Amino acid sequence: MTDAQETSISSTDRLPSGDAGPAPVPLLEPREGVPPVIATPEALAEVVDAFAAGRGPVAVDAERASGYRYGQRAYLVQLRREGAGTALIDPIGCPNLTSLGEAVEDAEWVLHAATQDLPCLREIGMQPRRLFDTELAGRLAGFARVGLGPMVENVLGYSLEKGHSAVDWSTRPLPEPWLRYAALDVELLVDLRDALEEELERQGKLDWARQEFAAIAAAPPPAPRKDPWRRTSGMHKVRRRRQLAVVRELWTVRDQVAQRRDVSPGKVLTDAAIVEAALAMPATVQALAALPGYGHRMGRRQLEQWHAAVQRARALPESELPPPALAPSGPPPPRAWADKDPVAAARLSAARAAVTGRAEELDLPQENLLSPDTVRRLCWEPPADPTPGAVAEALRGYGAREWQIEQTAELLAVALSAAPPEE
């Protein structure tokens, strides 16, 4: 690292003061150059030994092929550790990285937006025991822009080239500029971590961050989403149950085709095309072909495949049609509270105002102080006697961290008590 780089990294005058500061310095090359891509068991074994012998935290990142391939698997894994340098690992050539994960399991892993990368890392055998999330740290520290590029620029004074963030990382071989970009993503991650830790300590928020990081590391894998077809873009236009059945059938067939071909579902059939077919309910292949998204470029066999899905939905008995919406697992949408329960609506309004005010005092996003879902659940079914202790216990049951409870329990107890009593 150059003297200039050390000076910039140790400086705190770029932390969230709002000052623009000097122009950032472009970071163009990794310190040791672009490392070779690790794609064989023999080369991986050498990386495992090197990182096991390294020192301090481990910077970790992963690149996916979102929008190109089916699912969210990792197509490149980047790591950096003092004493080991940077490694770029190809999960296609090395699909099981359990040995690498075990080699650094006692170290703190530094990730940016950890919840995005942990699922694909878990798939290949890598799961941290401890982590530091620089994106979440930036939120807690009060940064307005928490992407990796803006954070490196504002905190360390360097600009990262982000032109390759949305490329097809399943491409082989990976072009040299992409590999350089990937290596630079972990180049300063530990330096960023150190500067953010210092800033969080200065603000009195470091323990809050540690609680958040521990919760992320300990969280189980998310459960599969029920009725994922309901997330089709444009679903708000689809009203009738028979039309919903068309969406379900087309979505299911598209997902099967996309998985078989290992391509993004949107490349097989767009969400807009699914909704168009659901609204039109075409009775013939010709009628389907006339709809947007099913034009002349689509072959007869494909058209027949989609038409068959529509026909299956048209033929379903009423008892097998999907309900208009999933049964709610929690409170109803807030917009319905005024009609369903005006007293609960008043509680929610008071609680939201209290949480917003405290978040502004602490200079952090409201959703990081307390999740909106937790606030809604608390207000819909409050404790019978909303004392600070009872509110704290309820928040704990909803998964709130202790620092969040300390900052909000009393405020929420006041808000819940101030709302008009039920008649």
Describe the structure.
Helices cover 51% and strands 9% of the residues. With 423 residues, the chain is α/β, with parallel strands linked by helices. The protein folds into three domains: 3-218, 2-Layer Sandwich (Nucleotidyltransferase, domain 5); 228-320, DNA polymerase, domain 1 (Orthogonal Bundle), CATH 1.10.150; 334-418, HRDC domain (DNA polymerase, domain 1), CATH 1.10.150. It has a six-stranded mixed β-sheet with strand order 2-5-4-3-6-7, sandwiched between helices. It has a two-stranded parallel sheet with strand order 1-8. Strand 4 (74-82) and strand 5 (85-89) form a beta hairpin. The longest helix has 21 residues, at 241-261. It is flat and about 65 Å long. The N and C termini lie far apart (69 Å). The relative contact order is 0.09.
Short summary of the structure?
This protein is of the alpha/beta class and 423 residues long. The protein is 51% helix and 9% strand.
